[in-house]
């Protein structure tokens, strides 16, 4: 009897301890399967069976790959994740729908010199980089550590005044919720997001954003545009780009040492950034709807109205030796233009307007950061960063004993393994709930059903978003 109990106990304990080794990957496979079933396989995957990597850039840049949101079920999901106001976001509006005027506003806001970018970033990062670690060491989650810096930076860039602690809190709550929902780690929290819209409307009323918008834009439309471009995309993208770069350094001590000893070697810094963005591109898939047919090289063609899904992570792995390995030196011998590498999209078809600013920011933050601290980590590094880049920051004025470092790294590893069990299940459940909710709401489809009463539908859609929000 006692022998049987021990056997059962042994099986249960072994089962529990084996969970981190098989459950997360099984849940990811299940999630991909369920999501594809629920979403339907509407899009043409590129690279894929019909169009391979050699045609990726040509098709992406084609003048008929011009539709952005209308006609793609996938847009319903993105608009859901990025609401309120995806219909006002430069990234989602159609070329023929006020696009040029909106893109011109973004361009003006981003037109600042390299020196101004560096000075503002230095000012915003100083309190966090210096005061936070106070000459010692600290366990941090990089995304949470970096996000306030990005918030202060973009707030001041947009409104030309220092961000108050109170406003910073509102923006962080919004941006964290967007990034968490995009990665299916949390559900949308619309009251938090709507609080930011209200804050932005109040700033606009003070005349803090004097740019030329299309005449029919209301104050709420303008607030939603600012929220989308500068307090969703900019903060989410920059926090993630910097988290990836610092985490890569934390996990590759040789690269970190070489970088910190040769900070004036701009080429090596460039290579580290390029390799990070190759392995961890911030876009998983960018989609387009064809406005006319596109001829392919095999004499076949893509029909008008097709949804093209450009898969960045897959594209960035084709044509490289050891594609899954982080090897910054590879960029010494290969050219970015001739490689399968497009971190900021394709020049001819709505590329990232902030590519220049983003690279300056990354260089500045890495140079400044590695001068102040060393980083170490033993957590898994994936593109979706569910662990938010957990790592140890050690002030350069402090010596962390080998023993203490080994204990901390072991702690991070074990915690990460168990968190993975939990987060993979959470991602499965929340992902399913959000996909079903987005399918139900059909925000993009409903918006474009009424193209002749745009002003009315804009207001209705955003009001609808506000109401839905409260329910979720
Ligand atoms: C390292 C950081 C960043 C990366 C890697 C990145 C990447 C990209 C990519 C790949 C696209 C093209 C997507 C497509 O083809 O549909 C894009 C578009 C865009 N990005 Fe970025 N981005 C970054 C930072 C930013 C920042 C800081 C901002 C805002 C200030 C921003 C605003 C936008 C906007 C508005 C678009 C849409 C452009 C259009 O459709 O006209 N991005 N980004």
Count of domains:
1
Number of helices: 16
Q: Helical percent range?
A: 55-70%
- What's the average pLDDT? 90
| β-strand amount | 5-15%
CATH topology: Cytochrome p450
Question: Mind telling me the CATH class?
Answer: Mainly Alpha
- CATH architecture assignment name: Orthogonal Bundle
- From the spread of the alpha carbons, the general shape counts as globular
Radius of gyration: 23 Å
- Unreliable segments of 5+ consecutive residues: 452-472
Bound molecules: protoporphyrin IX containing FE
Helix/strand structural class: mainly alpha
CATH homolog superfamily: Cytochrome P450
End-to-end gap: 51 Å
The largest β sheet comes out as: 3 strands, mixed
Order of helices and strands: HEHHHHEHHHHHHEEEEHHEEHHH
The order of strands across the largest sheet is: 1-6-3
Count of β-strands: 8
